[in-house]
Design goal:
Layout lengths: L2 E5 L2 E4 L4 E8 L9 E7 L6 E6 L5 E3 L7 E6 L4 E6 L8 E8 L11 E2 L3 E6 L1
Parallel strand pairs: 2-11
Antiparallel strand pairs: 1-3, 3-8, 4-5, 4-9, 5-6, 7-8, 9-10, 9-11
């Protein structure tokens, strides 16, 4: 069974920073063979891709977070990170990490999901 556990969310003022982490585990789960993504969701809206990183380390970002967010992975620690700087109130959402065999932008292509961590940015 695969488990993804997010951490690092919280309340921060606009302009501040947070670093999310997602630790993966599972007997048959080889972290380095999966693309990893960070998604976010607010009530009443669809889950959207914020950032994703391929097995080889290529990264892709939502336009509104380019230059502010950085996704990275540490295969030795089975962990993916999302460094979020210059946070804005519109970044407020539940953030989820996910694993896929494809570096897809679509949530439905991700087989494994974490439970989510709340990020709240106050103005």
């Amino acid at each position: 069974q695969v488990q993804l556990v997010e951490s690092g969310g919280g309340l921060v003022k606009a302009g501040g920073s947070l670093r999310l982490a997602c630790a993966a585990s599972g007997r048959a789960f080889t972290f380095g063979t999966y693309a990893m993504g960070w998604f976010r969701q607010t009530p009443g809206k669809e889950r959207e891709s914020v950032a994703r990183i391929t097995r080889g380390g290529n990264t892709y970002y939502l336009d509104s977070v380019k230059g502010r967010f950085t996704i990275s992975r540490d295969n030795a620690k089975n962990t993916v990170y999302l460094q979020m700087n210059s946070l804005k109130p519109e970044d407020t959402a539940s953030y989820y990490c996910a694993a896929s065999t494809l570096p897809s932008i679509r949530a439905r292509d991700y087989a494994y999901w974490g439970q989510g961590t709340q990020v709240t940015v106050s103005s």
